[in-house]
Amino acid sequence: MNIKHFWKNTKGSFTLEASIVFPIILFTTLLILFMCMYQYQNTMLKQAASKTSERAAYTWDNSHKDINTGAFPQGQDDGLYWRIADDNMISGLFGWAGAANTANVAIPGGSGGSLPANKLAAAASWIPGKMSGNTTYNNHLMMRNVNTTLSEPISLGALERELGHPLRSEVSASSVVVEPVEFIRTIELMRYYGAKFTGKYGAAMNMGRAGTVLQWFSTAAGS
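C-alpha cells predicted for TadE-like domain-containing protein:
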C-alpha cells in the first residue's frame, strides 16, 4: 500500500474531521449553556438579596413605611427614642458587655420580635419560598448596615449527576442605613461625651455611671 497516496487521498476527510471537531463544539456549547444558566440564577439571587437589603435600609427609620413605596400613614412612627431603646445606640456608644447590637431573621418564614427584627422580616416578606438564607442588621454606632445572604438550588440535573452532589448558588448583598440628620446627632453626642469623659471642660465623668443612667433611661423610654 502506497503511504503517500493514502495521505493525499481526500476521500472521507469531511467525515473524519467532523467526528473530531463536532464533539468539541457540542461540549463547548453545552458548557456555555450551563454557565449561562448558572449565571442567570446567580444574578436573580443577587438582585433579590440587594433588593431586600436596600428596602430594609431605606425604611429603617420608620417600621410603618410601606416596603415598596416608603409611604406611611400620617402620625405613624416608632416613637421619639426608638434609636436609644430599640436600636441600641447607647449600648454601642458605651460598649456594654452582652449588648445586642445585631438582629437576625431567617428566610423564608422568619418572624420578628424586636423592632429591628420586625423591620427585617417586613423587608424579606416578598422573597420567594425556594430561596433560603437570612438577613442581618448590624449596629456599629457610626456604621449601621443590613446584610442579606440567599441561596438556592441550581436545577442542572445532568451536571449534578456527573458531579455526584446537588448544586447551590449563594450570594450576599449589603446596604448601609443612611440618616444624615441622625448621623450629625450621633457625631455631636460622641463629641459631647468624649469631652465629658476626658475632663476637657471640668471634672471627668465616670463612663460606667453615665452608662448606667442612660441604660435606665433607655429602658424607661422603651416601656
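The first strand starts at residue 102 and ends at 107.
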